[in-house]
Amino acid sequence: MLSRLSRPQALAVCAVPVVALIATAALAPLPFSLTQPGLTANVLGKNKGEPVITISGAATRDTSGQLRMTTIEATGPDTSVSLGDVLDSWFRTDRAVMPRDAVYPSDKSTKEIEKYNTEQMRESQDAASEAALNYLDLDPAGIEVDLELEDVGGPSAGLLFSLGIVDKLDGDGTGGDLTGGRTIAGTGTIDADGKVGAVGGVALKTQAARRDGATVFLVPEAECADAKAELPKGLRLIPVTTLKGAVDSLIALEKDNGKVPSC
């Protein structure tokens, strides 16, 4: 015959599996990636000693200021992320927790993901070059644009590449710089027609931009709310939907004529 347990004894017995369950959950890997502000790079300058933008077949101009593309850093696709890691990042403004599938394709190996990101970067660079030359009404057949940026993958630098090409070839169209001597940062995909697309991670990218000296951040219009969520002090947001709109906004900012859109 079984004896009846007292309330304290029953609680003690029940607590053992509960504690074990919590401990197991805390240590078990979860399907998340942890992200943080990543590197930024001035597309008007050099990366690891080599120019990011090289143009042949057309005269280029010296530029001032900076156009900085921005990134986020994420834990690798094979990195084990625990509940403790998630909770620690969840309450920090300089970290974000994202579903792993939102960062990496779930059906690809690490090498396949690296290859995929490299391909996306190359396609983005081709589209950025075409968009910039189309905007300037220049014949792509007679002008060669080479874009080199190591250790960065994906398509999110497209807008900044296009702006860098436009600045090197034409500036603001009247002899001045698109940047007005400022440090401008931003993000956004771009297609050959100059349409700017959303990218994700903009709240962290604004932090990377401000950390590296930017005072203006170009953001895809659809992501204004995300960019404003943790906006660093001293960073101005300018929403964009097209390359032309981005150029017009920078020229308006340079000339201080009050026609600069805001989020």
Main features:
Lon_proteolytic; 263 residues; disordered N terminus; Ribosomal_Su5_D2-typ_SF; 21% strand; Ribsml_uS5_D2-typ_fold_subgr; Lon proteolytic domain-containing protein; Ribosomal Protein S5, domain 2; alpha/beta; two-stranded antiparallel sheet; 6-stranded mixed beta sheet; 12 strands; 8 helices
Can you describe what's shown?
It comes from Streptomyces cinnabarinus. InterPro entries: Lon_proteolytic, Ribosomal_Su5_D2-typ_SF, Ribsml_uS5_D2-typ_fold_subgr. This is Lon proteolytic domain-containing protein. This protein is an alpha/beta fold. It has a domain of 184 residues: Ribosomal Protein S5, domain 2. It is built from eight helices and twelve strands. The strands form four sheets. The chain has a six-stranded mixed beta sheet. The chain has a two-stranded antiparallel sheet with strand order 2-3. β11, α7 and β12 form a beta-alpha-beta unit. α4 runs parallel beside α5. The radius of gyration is 24 Å and the shape is globular. The chain starts with 6 loop residues before the first helix and ends in an 8-residue tail after the last helix. The N terminus is likely disordered.
